[in-house]
């Protein structure tokens, strides 16, 4: 009886071991199949991204679509600043690609910007003027959508002609610097300001100190100089088109319809209108530099792979 129990127990143990081994083999096959599917899909996506990249130019538009005559479009969207979407580097990269393309009949700068850095706007203005002088057969048109103010208009005046919608906001030819002062609040709270500088005027923009008249005059002089540069640029770009109006350079804004009467713009029209009726190349191709999707894909892929390995091998 004891031997029979031992044999039965032994058979059950062997059966259990065999079952575990069988299930382990099946699980291993399933795991290998999943990884195989994953890497095949990954390789397919990689090839697809390479194909899309190969079919696209440096500006992100399709090389195949450039086979016919077209109007090149470059977006100036948002605040004009270094590192922003509407940075000088991005806009200039698109401009150079558009001027270089022989099938691009003319160029539209489509502007929707409240302004920003006068330095960045100045870089774009100078580059547009340089490229126009180098490629005399290509014209540049600025088209205003919602807003073309301050630095946005600084860029626009580099174009041959400017068009806007009747309800667009145009102008703001001025310069500002703002901030806050907390000296009275500090007095009420009993806070003592301790500022140490090497240089008499090093802390002249400190919001917790009283404003000296000499510092105020210096800032006003600085703003006045930049304002004059802005005015000179507008006069150079628009020439005799501007009307004589004492408010023109005051920082005020006008509707697109009013801006035509003031000589700030040349007419009313959208990008498609300008391409179709003015340039006579209805087909529009976007030359605005876009993010490198291959690099972004690689970055995200690296993060995803790290997460997969961490979960798979219980890494911390």
Could you please describe the fold and organization of this structure?
The chain is an alpha/beta fold and 316 residues long. The protein contains nine helices and eight strands. It has helices spanning 2-54, 88-100, 118-134, 151-156, 183-189, 213-238, 256-262, 271-279, 293-312; strands at 70-77, 104-113, 140-149, 161-164, 169-171, 253-255, 267-268, 284-286. Strands 1, 2, 3, 4, 5, 6, 7 and 8 form an eight-stranded mixed β-sheet that branches.
CATH topology of the largest domain: 2-enoyl-CoA Hydratase, Chain A, domain 1
Provide the domain count. Answer: 3
Number of helices: 9
Instruction: Report how far the terminal alpha carbons are from each other.
Output: 54 Å
Structural class of the helices, strands and pairings? alpha/beta
Mean pLDDT rating? 83
By CATH, the architecture of the largest domain is named Alpha-Beta Complex
Enumerate the spans where pLDDT stays under 50 for 5 or more consecutive residues.
none
N-to-C order of helices and strands: HEHEHEHEEHHEHEHEH
Shape: flat
Rounded radius of gyration (Å): 32 Å
Largest sheet: 8 strands, mixed
Helix share bin: 40-55%
CATH class of the largest domain: Alpha Beta
Strand content: 5-15%
Number of strands: 8
For CATH, the homologous superfamily of the largest domain is named as 2-enoyl-CoA Hydratase, Chain A, domain 1
């Amino acid at each position: 009886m004891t031997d029979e129990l031992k044999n039965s127990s032994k058979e059950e143990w062997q059966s259990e071991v065999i079952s575990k081994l069988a299930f382990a083999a099946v699980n291993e096959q399933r795991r290998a199949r999943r990884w195989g599917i994953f890497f095949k899909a990954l390789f397919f996506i990689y090839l697809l991204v390479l194909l899309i990249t190969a079919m696209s130019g440096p500006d992100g538009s399709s090389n195949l679509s450039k086979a016919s005559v077209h109007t090149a479009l470059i977006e100036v969207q948002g605040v004009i600043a270094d590192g922003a979407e509407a940075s000088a580097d991005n806009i200039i990269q698109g401009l150079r690609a558009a001027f270089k393309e022989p099938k691009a009949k003319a160029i539209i700068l489509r502007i929707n910007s409240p302004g920003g850095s006068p330095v960045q706007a100045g870089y774009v203005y100078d580059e547009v003027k340089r490229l126009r002088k180098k490629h005399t057969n290509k014209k540049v048109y600025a088209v205003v959508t919602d807003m073309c103010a301050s630095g946005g208009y600084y860029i626009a005046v580099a174009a041959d002609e400017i068009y806007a919608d009747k309800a667009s906001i145009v102008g703001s030819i001025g310069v500002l610097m703002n901030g806050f002062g907390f000296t009275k609040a500090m007095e009420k709270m009993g806070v003592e300001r301790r500022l140490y500088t090497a240089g008499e005027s090093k802390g002249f923009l400190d919001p917790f100190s009283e404003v000296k008249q000499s510092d105020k005059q210096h800032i006003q002089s600085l703003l006045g100089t930049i304002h004059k540069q802005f005015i000179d640029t507008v006069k150079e770009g628009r020439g005799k088109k501007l009307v004589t109006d004492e408010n023109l350079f005051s920082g005020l804004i006008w509707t697109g319809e009013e801006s035509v009467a003031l000589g700030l713009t040349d007419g009313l029209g959208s990008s498609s209108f300008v391409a179709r009726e003015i340039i006579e190349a209805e087909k529009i191709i976007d030359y605005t530099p876009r993010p490198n999707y291959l690099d972004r894909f690689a970055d995200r892929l690296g993060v995803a792979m790290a997460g997969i390995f961490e979960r798979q091998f219980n890494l911390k």
